[in-house]
From TrEMBL:
The active site is at residues 141, 214, 545. Residues 194-224 are annotated as: Disordered. This is Subtilisin-like protease. Residues 662-759 form the Subtilisin-like protease fibronectin type-III domain. Residues 1-26 form the signal peptide. GO terms for cellular component: extracellular region. InterPro entries: Filamin/ABP280_repeat-like, PA_dom_sf, PA_domain, Peptidase_S8/S53_dom, Peptidase_S8/S53_dom_sf, Peptidase_S8_Ser-AS, Peptidase_S8_subtilisin-rel, Peptidases_S8_3. GO terms for molecular function: serine-type endopeptidase activity. Pfam families: fn3_6, Inhibitor_I9, PA, Peptidase_S8. Residues 32-107 form the Inhibitor I9 domain. The keyword Signal applies. Residues 201-215 have a biased composition (Basic and acidic residues).
Length: 762
């Protein structure tokens, strides 16, 4: 055959045609798309929505077929389309959104993967952490729901021999509730009851049992066991696990319906340290006060002396400046950032305009006639603050069967939805105001609802107040991952500067704290509202309360990997390896401003566990160093005794003390009273063996600050070696309130040991 010219030509033509066919097919590659339809816009000639969907699809593709029809969680269908067909379909009447399908794998509830803790036990990142099972994370919160699968003790060995804790009992809490994972549970109510009277046991348990959900969520985030097929009502489906799966948990209930009282908190801290906890996780705060007046700071000092790291939330009072709680330098203070997961919802107005928001609503969708009359709460209320959808403020006759726009603020977001529902409303759009900007927090609302940012909210309100017959609808997009940019600093995360000691930069770092899935109580539904009849094993909530236990769990992993590290050393490793830029080199953004965050927003940056296990160098701090710090603050003998329990300790009158000499892993430089030069001294300890480290500094901002580091090169001969250096900051006079930011980095070519710099003029 090879000798026949006609056959050879036929073969060439055949191959050419095959190649052209491949090119054409490549150009028409199909993918699955989810098509969201406005069900109420079905033309009258159709009696069945499926028929209408089919005709809509055929209008852009003769060959595509419907894969699924959706009529409960969304209205619409899925189909295999080319990109061109998908774009054409989105222009058809009744089509609201055409979204490409995303591949989902069964994995963690996202934060462990986002933090690169990819193995279920974390040992690929922390190979030395085999002793993590001996680390106990004590969580001071609202108690624990022991029946949660997050406390499954399968595979755990005996309780550590040095554990001295107990499992206290109550009317609904037996000692058998504890096991080899949840090894301790206590409650502290005497201070609360002295202030508020006896606990109302019809509303909450006078026992370690968690009737609120907050404590179960935080403790399972820090050290929960692996739970497969976890989700909240189908959202964020995957394998739930805490940061330190192998660590033990001890719950200390200190918060009740009426609050958390310092006498109870101190008693719990006292017990937790005595019981043998290695980490204390405290997602609570109470404003700011001098350290000798701050119960948490006082308790944390003693814990630090005994080798216990205390991790606290920074607070949810952002984005305003100087809103932080838990400022003591011996406390690790954690702000909140987002992860790369979202729960989109889409708002379409009667004028065709479309807006993106978020929601965790999972019930029945809007009625068949899903394009509904749309009203502004402020116009259908009997109160001057009716726009906020406060209880009892909406007029049912003006709300019945309509979608209501409520402004965010004052009362809980989920309560606003309940108020709309109780007034007969069919749905809610929750609009951010200037206080929250573009930050979106998803909620498991009781009625169809979506939250939108301030810009979208303002635009929607403009339509709502100008159109004579406003209409709207909401569709829900489920779970999406791979969201960029991420992380961004949450708007609610409290910010610096430090109001107690401006020379100490706070927060220390940020961690995931927005839309976090973790264990939940069986006492209340996901909204926490009494009217919510739903019960779930996991819930998605947000706050620095969620970011704090992430760091608590990571600290437990580091303590397991490096049992000889002090609390300050563990914090140093987490801070100096944190990142403040994306892979592109651009700075991590602040959602409140849309601009790069500053060290007052994110401290050293976002926690990066794989790097923290091998930081190269550490900034260590001893109890005596903190005493020198208190002397630099001109603390009296009484004040020091209050904080450090040293009744006869006095500062040496012959010694010069300076706040800037505290060996902190960050730099907060304050120019004031005509000062033009400020010096900071630091000492680094090698934990990465021999090496030569060279320094690099970078600053930018309002001033022209010169930064000189002496020496600019540090040589370490072996692990344990220490080297000191001095940083001199020199500046001309600047107006009060001016700021400048930067970074000081030591590197040996393998390790990068970074410290943030914040400079202010006062």
């Amino acid at each position: 055959m090879g000798s026949d010219p006609q056959q050879r030509m036929a073969l060439v033509l055949s191959l050419l045609c095959l190649s052209l066919t491949c090119i054409v097919r490549a150009a028409e590659q199909r993918s699955t798309y989810i098509v969201h339809m406005a069900k109420s816009e079905m033309p009258s000639e159709f009696s069945d929505h499926g028929d209408w969907y089919g005709v809509s699809l055929q209008s852009v593709s003769e060959s595509a077929e419907i894969i699924y029809l959706y009529d409960t969680v969304l209205h619409g269908f899925s189909a295999r389309l080319t990109q061109a067909e998908a774009e054409a379909l989105e222009t058809q009447p009744g089509v609201m959104f055409v979204n490409p399908e995303i591949r989902y794998d069964l994995h963690t509830t996202r934060t462990p993967e986002f933090l690169h803790l990819d193995e279920t036990n974390g040992n690929n990142v922390f190979p030395q952490a085999n002793s993590a099972s001996d680390v106990v994370v004590g969580v001071l919160d609202t108690g624990v729901w022991p029946e949660s699968k997050s406390y499954d003790d399968t595979g755990f060995g005996p309780v550590p021999a040095n554990w001295k804790g107990t499992c206290e009992t109550g009317p609904d809490f037996n000692s058998s509730a504890c096991n080899r994972k949840l090894i301790g549970a206590r409650f502290f109510s005497k201070g609360y009851e002295a202030n508020k009277g006896p606990i109302d046991q019809t509303k909450e348990s006078r026992s370690p049992r968690d009737n609120d959900g907050h404590g179960t969520h935080t403790s399972s985030t820090a050290a929960g066991s692996t739970v497969s097929r976890a989700s909240l009502l189908g959202f964020a489906t995957g394998t739930a696990r805490g940061m330190a799966v192998g660590a033990r948990v001890a719950a200390y209930k200190v918060c009740w319906v009426g609050g958390c009282f310092s006498s109870d908190i101190l008693a719990a801290m006292d017990a937790a340290v005595a019981d043998g906890c290695g980490i204390l996780s405290m997602s609570l705060g109470g404003g700011t006060a001098d350290y000798f007046r701050d119960s948490v700071a006082i308790g944390a000092f003693s814990a630090m002396e005994k080798g216990v790291l205390v991790s606290c939330s920074a607070g949810n009072s952002g984005p305003g400046p100087s809103t932080l709680s838990n400022l003591a330098p011996w406390i690790t203070t954690i702000g909140a950032g987002t992860i790369d997961r979202d729960f989109p919802a889409y708002v379409t107005l009667g004028n065709g305009q479309k807006y993106s928001g978020v929601s965790l609503y999972s019930g029945k969708l809007l009625a068949a006639n899903s394009t509904l009359p749309f009203v502004y709460a402020g116009k259908v209320s009997n109160a001057t603050v009716g726009n906020l959808c406060m209880p009892g403020t909406l007029v049912p006759e003006k709300v019945q069967g309509k979608i209501v726009l409520c402004d965010r603020g004052t009362n809980p977001r989920v309560q606003k939805g309940l108020v709309v529902q109780d007034a007969g409303g069919a749905g809610m759009i929750l609009a951010n105001t200037a206080a929250n900007g573009e930050e979106l927090v998803a909620d498991a609302h009781l009625l169809p609802a979506a939250a939108v940012g301030q810009k979208s909210g303002d635009s929607i309100k403009s339509y709502l107040l100008s159109d004579p017959n406003p209409m709207a609808t909401i569709v829900f997009g489920g779970t999406q991952v791979g969201i960029t940019p991420s992380p961004v600093v949450a708007a609610f995360s409290s910010r610096g500067p430090n109001t107690i000691t401006p020379q100490i930069l706070k927060p220390d770092l940020i961690a995931p704290g927005v839309n976090i899935l973790a264990g939940w109580t069986g006492s209340v539904g996901p909204t926490g509202l009494a009217a919510d009849p739903r019960r779930v094993e996991f819930n998605i909530i947000s706050g620095t309360s969620m970011s704090c236990p992430h760091v608590s769990g990571l600290a437990a992993l580091l303590k397991g990997a490096h049992p000889d590290w002090s609390p300050a050393a563990i914090r140093s490793a987490l801070m100096t390896t944190a990142y403040s830029t994306y892979a592109s080199g651009d700075g991590v953004l602040d959602v409140a401003t849309g601009k790069p965050a500053t060290p007052f927003d994110l401290g050293a940056g976002h926690v990066d566990p794989p790097r923290a296990v091998d930081p190269g160098l550490l900034y260590d701090i001893t109890a005596d160093d903190y005493l020198d710090f208190l002397c630099a603050l001109n603390y009296t003998q009484f004040m020091i005794a209050t904080v450090a329990k040293r009744a006869n300790y006095t500062c040496d009158a012959k010694k010069s003390y300076d706040v800037s000499s505290l060996n902190y892993p960050s730099f907060s430089v304050v120019f004031g009273n005509g000062t033009t030069t400020v010096k900071h001294t630091r000492t680094l300890t090698s934990v990465g063996g021999a090496g030569t480290y060279k320094v690099n500094t970078l600053t930018s901002g309002a001033g022209d600050v010169k930064v000189a580091v002496n020496p600019s090169e540090l040589n370490f001969k072996k692990s344990g070696d220490q080297q000191s250096y001095t940083v001199t900051f020199t500046s001309s006079t600047m107006p009060s309130g001016s700021t400048e930011f930067g970074r000081l980095v030591w590197s040996d070519g393998k390790h990068v040991v970074a410290s943030p710099i914040a400079i202010t003029w006062s």
